[in-house]
Design brief:
- The protein is an alpha+beta fold and about 425 residues long.
- The protein folds into 4 domains: about 55 residues; about 45 residues; about 150 residues, Ribonuclease H-like superfamily/Ribonuclease H (Nucleotidyltransferase, domain 5, 2-Layer Sandwich), CATH 3.30.420.10; about 60 residues, no CATH class.
- The chain is about 40% helix and about 15% strand.
- The protein has 13 helices and 11 strands.
- β7 and β8 form a beta hairpin.
- The radius of gyration is 33 Å and the shape is elongated.
Length: about 425
């Protein structure tokens, strides 16, 4: 009897003790069924098997036999082939999803994990003791708080230039609301993402961002200005509160989303051969729909906190436009963007001398000149020398990549041609 007990699992040992008590008439069948979480009929069957075969009657007869759910040798070989080639650097969960979606092989992620470990393409992660941060409860309504951030990364794995991905994710649901690819993290890239969010959902109650200079003026003692950045002014015009976080952990939802996107989105684009920002942007809506179906949660409160935009796309584009003030000279000229422009009038234009005009810079690159709620026609007169733009750590890679590309092109053009005549 001792050898039988040693061969049993802990659950089977507990069952042996209880069934033995029932067989010895020390314990009632009803109470035994309650302790074991079984029905009385199952307890009677176990008691009968115990009396007929002893300890072995409580051990599954399938122990040591091949599982009926085991993959066939041919299927296992196919899965291993895909894991070594097409999905070599995929995580177990994503690999299992793609095997089912693209190859028609339904296999659990744990089976994929086991095969990856067996093939040496996946190493089990060791648990590390991390600093514990108090989790903040999700906001109750969709649109109350949208976390925004950029993720500079080699999104095309060398098939194209490095770029940044602007990510908007809802705090209440974990739902992606906007993805915008751009050469680097800039105000214009965030405004493009903001435009797509407003068109799709309306104006949210608040944005939650880091303390990048796009969102707040970080100078301790600014000499002039209104203390707001261009993105902050647009948010104010749309009546969206802009909140900045003190630590990356405070906006952990978008930070974790960036990590998952760098895993899943990179591999999805690899499978489709996407290698340019334009192709990636065209694929973004399809990916967002899949992400939201896979990861988004239902909000605690079903009411949508967004305010619908009811003024049309032209009014939205004007709201998003960057504004500058200029004073016209006696010749009705003004300078901007390294060029001198002249306002065109049908008459002498004396009334416009010294007038203050507002320049609207639209996201698509157009510029409008406004004077007392009317647009003025203008023409470019001449160009001015401009200094090189200052770069920060998030735009430096793009500048250097452009310099390297120019250097490479120059080296190729200077290479001597070889004549075989």
């Amino acid at each position: 009897m001792g050898e039988g007990i040693l061969a049993m699992s802990s659950a089977e040992r507990e069952r042996l003790v209880v069934i033995g008590q029932v067989a010895s008439r020390v314990l009632r069948q009803g109470l035994a069924a309650e302790r074991l979480g079984l029905c009385v009929r199952q307890v009677k069957r176990l008691v009968r098997a115990y009396r007929e075969r002893g300890d072995a009657g409580l051990v599954s007869r399938r122990r040591g036999q091949t599982s009926n759910r085991r993959l066939g040798a041919g299927v296992t070989a196919r899965v291993k082939g895909f894991l070594l080639d097409k999905y070599r650097d995929f995580g177990p969960t994503l690999a299992a999803e793609k095997l089912a979606e693209l190859e028609g092989i339904a296999v659990s992620r744990e089976t994929v994990r086991r095969l990856q470990i067996e093939l040496g393409v996946w190493k089990p992660k060791r648990r590390r003791h991390k600093r514990v941060f108090q989790l903040r409860e999700r906001r109750p309504r969709f649109g109350e708080l949208i976390q925004i951030d950029a993720s500079p990364h080699d999104w095309f794995e060398g098939r194209g230039r490095r770029c940044a991905l602007i990510v908007f994710i809802d705090d209440a649901t974990g739902r992606l609301t906007a993805l915008q690819f751009a050469p680097c993290e800039t105000t214009r890239a965030y405004l493009r993402a903001l435009r797509s969010h407003v068109v799709a959902h309306g104006c949210p109650l608040a944005f939650y961002s880091d303390r990048h200079g796009i969102f707040r003026v970080n100078a301790k003692d600014p000499v002039g200005g209104d203390g707001k950045t261009e993105f902050g002014r647009v948010a104010e015009r749309l009546r969206i509160e802009l909140i900045t976080a003190l630590t990356p952990q405070a906006k952990g939802r978008v930070e974790r989303a960036n990590q998952t996107l760098q895993d899943r989105l990179v591999r999805e684009m690899r499978l489709r051969g996407i290698s340019t920002i334009e192709e990636a942007q065209a694929f973004a809506p399809t990916f967002m729909a899949r992400w939201n179906a896979r990861f988004a949660l239902a909000p605690r409160d079903g009411e949508d906190a967004h305010r619908p935009w009811k003024h049309g796309l032209d009014a939205l584009d004007e709201t998003l436009a960057r504004r500058e003030e200029r004073t016209l000279s006696k010749a009705l000229t003004f300078s901007v963007g390294g060029a001198v422009h002249c306002v065109k009038t049908s008459g002498p234009g004396i009334a416009l001398r010294g007038a203050k005009v507002t320049l609207l810079h639209f996201l698509e690159g157009d510029m409008h000149v406004r004077y007392k709620n009317r647009s003025l026609s203008f023409t470019r007169v001449r160009s001015l020398p401009t200094p090189s733009p200052a770069e920060d750590e998030k735009t430096l890679d793009v500048r250097l990549d452009a310099l390297l590309a120019a250097q490479k092109a120059e080296a190729q053009s200077d290479a001597p041609s070889i004549s075989w005549s």
